């Protein structure tokens, strides 16, 4: 199926493992669970809410949504909200908080040398969840999400959103090794050790 650049951007933004329906249900249930609950500023309570969200979402859509998958989705939502808040502070961008509509004035183009993918996404699609995110993350001060217990995760090395604008998907693994990746193994050395051990 041929997609427009914006359709592909929406799919990438959503994440490959989430359908449009999955995402819509997740956000609707998430905001319903958080609405009017100031106790979500407590880390334990907020993370319990996310576990409950995973259970309800799995039950509603008849799919398996692990707590980790849901936590990652909500973490990404928070990062996208924070990026949108930065975007609407740019010169020439007018955001009407009452209607959640964007207007881009000519001044914007005078200040933008090259528009990155995130800015292009916001300019084209806006951010429909702004009011709900503003209430949940800024008014209720939803706590940070626990990813403890996940191999390789450390609070000192937080999750990051890749803002690389390159279109290349054929990058070599050597160029982007995993965090704490093991050293390369010399198979000749392994074979030599095996022969010595067998003697």
TrEMBL record:
Acidic residues bias spans: 161-175
Biased composition annotated in UniProt, kind: Basic and acidic residues: 190-199
Region (Disordered): 158-199
Signal peptide: none
Alphabetized PANTHER family for the sequence: L10-INTERACTING MYB DOMAIN-CONTAINING PROTEIN-LIKE, PTHR47584
Protein name: Myb/SANT-like domain-containing protein
Organism encoding this protein: Rehmannia glutinosa
